Amino acid sequence: MKVYVIDNGGQWTHREWRVLKYLKVDTKILPNTTPFEEIGDVDALVLSGGSPSIASEAGRMGNNGLYLDKAPYPILGICAGMQFLCTHFGGTMGPAARPEFGKATLHVDSDGDIFNGLPREFTVWQSHNDEVKTLSEDFEVLAHTDSCRIEAVKHRKRPIYGLQFHPEVENTDHGYDIFSNFLKVVEQWNK
Amino acid sequence: MFDAKEFVEEKIEEIKAAIPGRAVIACSGGVDSTVAAAIVSKAIGDRLLTVYVDTGFMRKGESATVSKIFDNLHLNYRIIDASEEFFSALKGITEPEQKRKIIGAGFIRVFEREAKAFHSEYLVQGTIAPDWIESGDKLRDTIKSHHNVGGLPEDMKLKLVEPLRDLYKDEVRKVARHLDVEVSEKQPFPGPALAIRVIGEPTRENVEIVREACAIVEEELEAAAKRGEMERPWQYFAVLLPVQSVGVQGDRRAYGRTIAVRAVESIDGMSAAYSRIPHDVLEKISLRITSEMKANVNRVVYDITHKPPATIEWE
Asked: How confident is the prediction for chain A on average, in pLDDT?
């Protein structure tokens, strides 16, 4: 399986690459300015986090919008990657009422999919100033924390997922399981 | 997961091809640079010169132990005392990024001299992933300029070879164990060393204070781990704060300085949680610092911040 990581300038982009590599996936980090056609025959993309505030610096998110419009395969957006994809499909975002850094407790609202087989509550690691405020009708919320209502989302018609927290860092419990579950979605989709 | 044996074999071949002549390696005796030295010396033998720079910011006893480490690895090495150079370059400097850049450039000037004398145009560094990630690039914000990446001077002419660039600390330790490098379990220590554990100007006096405090923190935590009272943290040290407070010592007023104790749990340094050190152990550290260092320090605080939002070091 081939899953590339789109680099939006996150501190943990390279961690996403490492987790995929450990899960025996053929992976590579590509800058977010890479033309869609040059990405080639991948099975899925991960849109990394990054320092841009999507509300005011969306330009720094490069071609993420093109990938979301054109990709026939699954996409997982993390942190800024998730915020971008939610707004791209009509949601809104802004400064978080209560920004989260470091440890938080995730409450899973809808198991199955990427939370398949995981507890309803576990520790995750955060690093975000902004948050998704509203979602378009195409999306449903899969998880929340006490400080942030929208921590995980899923597109109702396409295999597009978003996570506000960071499954790729070691301090997050079940991070590898979440990636494995996403890879199962990818496998199913490409069948 | 990660195959250390395969990694070493691959890197030896890569290095043989990348370094046709001689090379110097910047080696602090820490896990990363010592592992890099071990791999590169396997690839090119005595065409590698290992250089250790005593910046004057090293921990207690550090410079005395490196030659033993290098001897055990049968490295061809030189130990350079450059402390005068470093202290004078940092005179009056308090801003953390400026400190890191001056130290980075200071290292390179020493390596350039050594490389010239050794007729080499290659510089090997034990750079690992967090070093270049946190140093920033076109896409990524600079969190801090690591001396070996963001601290490199623009006019540097040496060609860089960095075999560990894609690894994190846990993977480097696996390589170290595979190669039987004795420093495999050593705690991480930043290149700018104690200069960035003094908040404010790293004068000889300030560095001496934080050196002593770091030694006490290390001794007490390692002893407590040995007694089975706790696990040894991933990284643990003292920071000298530019804050004075009022105290009372033997019925006399004291107006002394503050030491922050920091200890964290991590796997790769990219995220970390503060260590839940037992209060009895914290108390021992506090008592020792405020008694043994009473002339300078009369207050000890414990840092309970995760990364993020903090980083592990204070600068």
From this structure: 96
A150, A162 contact by CB (below 8 A): no
Mean pLDDT of chain B: 97
Considering only alpha carbons, which residue of chain A is nearest residue B311? Answer: A102
Is this structure's pTM higher than 0.90?
Answer: yes
User: What is the pLDDT at residue B257?
Assistant: 98
Gap between the Cα atoms of A172 and B68, Å rounded: 39
Catalytic residue (one of A88, A128, A155, A166) = A166
Q: Could B133 and A7 be called an inter-chain contact, meaning their C-beta atoms sit closer than 8 Å? A: no
Q: Which fold has domain A3-189?
A: Rossmann fold (3.40.50)
Question: Within a 13 Å sphere around the CA of B142, how many CA atoms are in the beta-carbon half?
Answer: 15
CA distance to partner chain B, nearest, from residue A12 (Å):
7
Q: Are A4 and A27 in contact (CB under 8 A)?
A: yes
Candidate list A79, A86, A100, A148, residue with the active-site label: A79
* DSSP H or E segment with residue A16: helix A13-22
Structure tokens at A66: 């093109």
Where does the pLDDT of residue B154 fall: very low under 50, low under 70, confident under 90, or very high at 90 and above? very high
- Nearest-CA distance B148 → chain A (Å): 18
Residue spans of the domains in chain A: they are 3-189
Using the Cα atoms of residue B173, residue B176, residue B177 and residue B178 in order, give the sign of their dihedral: positive
What ipTM does this complex have?
0.93
Distance of CA B243 to the CA centre of its chain: 24
Positive/negative CA dihedral, B197, B140, A55, A44: negative
The verdict on whether A86 is a catalytic residue reads: no
Cβ–Cβ gap B141/A51 under 8 Å = yes
Chain B residue with CA closest to A166: the answer is B271
Q: Which residues have CB under 8 Å from A157's CB, separation 6+? A: A138
Helical axes A13-22 vs A175-189, angle rounded to 10°: 70
pLDDT at B1: 83
Query: What is the reported pLDDT for A73?
Result: 97
Per-residue CA distances from B112 to A35, A146, B23, B78, B160 (Å): 41, 54, 11, 14, 12
Residue A168 a catalytic site member: yes
Residues of chain A that touch chain B, judged by Cβ-Cβ distance less than 8 Å: 7-15, 18, 22, 31-32, 50-51, 101-103, 125-127, 166, 169-171
A174 vs A154: CA distance, rounded Å: 19
